[in-house]
Specification:
Layout: H1 6-53, E1 56-61, E2 67-68, H2 72-77, E3 90-91, E4 94-95, H3 98-114, E5 118-123, E6 130-137, E7 148-154, H4 156-185, E8 190-193, E9 199-202, H5 204-209, H6 215-221, H7 234-244, E10 248-256, E11 259-269, E12 275-281, H8 283-305, E13 309-313, E14 319-322, H9 324-330, H10 334-337, H11 343-352, H12 362-370, E15 380-385, E16 391-398, E17 404-410, H13 412-434, E18 438-442, E19 448-451, H14 453-459, H15 463-467, H16 472-479, H17 489-502, E20 506-511, E21 517-524, E22 530-536, H18 538-587, H19 596-626, E23 635-638, H20 639-656, E24 660-665, E25 671-674, H21 676-693, E26 699-706, E27 710-717, H22 724-729, H23 738-743, H24 750-760, E28 764-770, E29 774-782
Parallel strand pairs: 24-26
Antiparallel strand pairs: 1-2, 1-7, 3-4, 5-6, 6-7, 8-9, 8-12, 10-11, 11-12, 13-14, 13-17, 15-16, 16-17, 18-19, 18-22, 20-21, 21-22, 23-25, 26-27, 27-29, 28-29
Organism: Sphingomonas changnyeongensis
Protein name: histidine kinase
GO molecular function, one term: phosphorelay sensor kinase activity
């Protein structure tokens, strides 16, 4: 039996305790490592799961070209197995294209040597999948030195989006370029302001409008299109648009190319990009608006002047316009109409004033009239017969805006006139049939429209033939058998043609076979027709022949009378000369001294001989002038001298009657070519008449003036004057004025002789007179 000593037992106990402690530590350490291994396994599984679901595949390329890659790489590349080497990434008809593999190999070598990352987009053969390969040198913890880690991304969707965005960017760039070109080519000024509201961009139209050198010049100088003025600050308007976030438009005046124009300026906010603007020339529009406003005002003023009543209703069926005839026609108050009553209320007010036709059911009738607003036709027209016999023509015209225009025309007078016209036509027909003249009315096409009984009887035409309204050529052929000269029938056709087409009046005469004579005429009528009339002048032709024979006998007697007067003038001159000679001898004392009474007798004889001699000379001159045998000299005549001599000769007689005698001769009176004696005689006759017929204390004036072509001498007085009848007889050699007849004065040969002498010089003598205002006689003589 083994007996342990105490030291041994103590040592054994200590060793056993040490072993037990080591065993406990070993168990605790194993359990701890096991737990850590479990955690590491779970962590690895999570990382592997993340890698399997990641959008990128990690690929390690070793220095010798070996590949560590997940199985999904084969699916992405379309390979049957996971590639193990770099060159295995591409194959025939599958994997990457050999060029892409070569490019990736070159990128890997560059990454090994330079240590820089790279990125490349590749595409699997036979697939639409796009892969993005990003590579960089691998860390020492990941792979041995010289390895490169590739991350392969499936960029199919992102590349498609990038392509789409690239195309969109290109499209937008083209659009912006086109828009820029459009803005530049725009004929209206356009501009852009930056956030500070300063001009940053303007187009050519803006540059031209402000008359600058270039767009850069405009931006540099800050030239504004609209002048700075109170209430028209363009920068303030742009600021308002930026603050409110809404476009601001306004019409302002501006000077464009030296002309004052009206511009519609619009500022458009662009957020943080600033404010854009453009300007449209609305000068013509503003003028058109003003012209349209004036047109509307003129139209309404014109409607007020019409006799027809006019009322206009708006789309809401309220009265928006009426003229004064409408107020008068329907007896409405203007203040009530100014409230814009509705259509129904206006009809009710018309009914209350008795200005609507009587209807059995007013409501149904009013409902029917409401349809005027929506009538699809060109309008409605009705006739209203009101109480009291008033006839109204009503025109209802729907308007494009949904309104209605009503026109009321009072046709009461027209209806009465139409009735009177019908009566007049019946009277005319009866009058035509009872006229002594034959009458026919031809239309513009030459057809006979109207005729009377006398027309049918003259041409012996059948009523049936006339009822067919024959043309004028057919009528002329039928009438030719009635004429003494059948070819004259063509004249009838020609006269009707001239009257209907050329609108001229013509007349003529025809002779019938039975000896009758007719005078006919074609007269154009206002309606385009022609009136053809025929008058039987058979009796007047016979009377005319008799009168012609009598006139020839009277003319022969007048010639005999004129010759007798001329001969008598010569015959009377011989004894008158003897009487005058013996009287002068007695006055000269050849028969002894005469007593005072005898001297007076001799003086009276000499005065009578002088007056009779003057009268005989006047009669002789008058008869010679009428016969065209008045002898005239052609010399230069100083009219001023001639007029002064005539005035000096008549001055004693004017002084005897205490007349104011004034002579006013202008130097322009000058000279004429003519017979001085005959002109002096004409002037003497005018002055003697003025002095003779001007009452005592009156005024006589002799005035002369002229121009380059004519000379004028006027003799005027303030005597009693002459009425129209006396003026008409003033130049009749066998007529005297009433005053001359009362005083038993001699025949009034002065004015006829004066006119004969003046007209013999191709001049003109005019007389102007009025009762109580005196008389003025003017002689106008040509210079030539």
């Amino acid at each position: 039996m083994l007996v342990l000593t105490p030291p041994v037992a103590a040592a054994a106990g200590a060793l056993l305790a040490l072993w037990l402690g080591a065993a406990a530590w070993a168990v605790w350490s194993g359990l701890k490592r096991r737990a850590r291994a479990v955690d590491d396994s779970r962590h690895g599984q999570r990382i592997q799961a993340l890698l399997d679901s990641a959008p990128a595949l990690p690929v390690v390329i070793h220095r010798d070209g070996a590949i560590d890659a997940p199985p999904r790489l084969a699916d992405w590349l379309g390979l049957p197995d996971t590639p193990e080497r770099l060159e295995a990434l591409g194959g025939p008809g599958a994997g990457l294209h050999p060029d892409d593999v070569a490019a990736i190999a070159a990128d890997i070598d560059a990454a090994r040597h330079a240590g820089r990352p790279f990125a490349r987009a590749v595409r699997a053969q036979g697939s639409t999948r796009t892969l993005l390969v990003r590579g960089a040198p691998a860390a020492d913890a990941v792979a041995p030195a010289g390895a490169v880690v590739l991350w392969v991304f499936d960029a199919t969707e992102s590349q498609a989006e990038i392509g789409r965005l690239t195309d969109e960017a290109a499209r937008l760039a083209k659009a912006i370029e086109a828009l820029s070109g459009l803005i530049e080519a725009s004929p209206i000024p356009m501009w852009h302001r930056g956030p500070d509201l300063r001009l940053t961009l303007v187009n050519s139209a803006y540059v031209k409008a402000v008359e600058a050198d270039s767009a850069a010049d405009v931006v540099t100088r800050g030239l504004e299109l609209v002048e700075m003025a109170p209430g028209r600050n363009p920068i303030a308007a742009a600021a308002s648009a930026r603050e409110t976030g809404e476009s601001v438009s306004r019409v302002v005046p501006a000077t464009i190319a030296g002309e004052r124009r009206s511009l519609l300026v619009v500022d458009v906010p662009l957020g943080d990009a600033g404010v854009a603007g453009y300007a449209i020339d609305v000068e013509e529009l503003e003028q058109s608006r003003a012209a349209f406003k004036r047109f509307v005002e003129a139209e309404r003023d014109m409607l007020d002047r019409l006799s027809a009543g006019v009322a206009q209703f708006g789309p809401d069926r309220s009265l928006i316009f009426y003229n004064q005839p409408f107020v008068r026609l329907f007896a409405m108050r203007p203040d009530w109409l100014a409230d814009r009553p509705e259509f129904d209320r206006v009809l009710e007010r018309m009914r209350e004033s008795g200005r609507l036709p009587e209807v059995r059911d007013f409501r149904a009738w009013r409902e029917e009239k409401r349809g005027w607003f929506t009538d699809a036709s060109d309008g409605q027209e009705e006739s209203w017969i009101l109480s009291g016999g008033t006839h109204l023509r009503v025109v209802a015209q729907p308007l494009p805006d949904g309104g209605l225009l009503l026109i009321f025309e009072d046709r009461t007078e027209q209806v009465a006139l139409a009735s009177a016209r019908d009566t007049l036509l019946r009277v005319r027909a009866a009058t035509f049939d009872n006229l002594f003249e034959a009458i026919g009315v031809f239309a513009g096409d030459g057809r006979l429209q109207l005729w009377n009984q006398k027309f049918r009887e003259v041409w012996a035409l059948d009523e049936a033939f006339l009822a067919s309204h024959p043309r004028v050529d057919a009528l002329a052929e039928t009438a030719a058998r009635m004429l003494a000269n059948p070819s004259r029938a063509a004249l009838i056709r020609e006269l009707v043609r001239v009257a209907t087409i050329e609108r001229k009046q013509r007349s003529g005469r025809v002779a019938m076979k039975d000896g009758r004579h007719f005078e006919f005429a074609a007269v154009p009528l206002p309606d385009g027709n022609a009136l053809f009339t025929m008058l039987d002048i058979s009796d007047s032709r016979r009377i005319e022949a008799a009168l012609r024979e009598k006139n020839e006998a009277l003319e022969a007697a007048d010639r005999v009378k004129t010759a007798f007067v001329a001969n008598m003038s010569y015959e009377l001159r011989t004894p008158l000369t003897s009487i005058g000679g013996f009287a002068e001898m007695l006055a000269g004392g050849y028969a002894g001294d005469l007593s005072p009474i005898a001297g007076d007798y001799v003086t009276a004889i000499l005065e009578s001989v002088a007056r009779l001699g003057t009268l005989i000379d006047d009669v002789l001159d008058l008869t010679q002038s009428e016969a065209g045998a008045l002898p005239l000299e052609r010399k230069s005549v100083d009219l001023a001298r001639l007029a002064r001599e005539a005035a000096a000769a008549i001055a004693p007689q004017a002084a005897e009657k205490k007349l104011g005698f004034e002579v006013a001769l202008d130097p322009s009176l000058g000279t004429v070519s003519g017979d001085a004696r005959r002109l002096r005689q004409a002037l003497d006759h005018l002055l003697r008449n003025a002095v003779r017929f001007t009452p005592e204390g009156g005024q006589v004036m002799l005035k002369g003036e002229g121009d380059r072509d004519h000379a004028r001498i006027t003799v005027s007085d303030n005597g009693p004057g002459m009425d129209a009848g006396t003026q008409a007889r003033a130049f009749d050699r066998f007529s005297r004025s009433g005053e001359a007849r009362e005083r038993g004065a001699s025949l009034g040969l002065g004015l006829p002789l004066a006119r004969q002498f003046v007209e013999a010089h191709r001049g003109e003598l005019t007389l102007i007179s009025a009762p109580g205002e005196g008389t003025a006689v003017t002689v106008e003589l040509p210079r030539g």
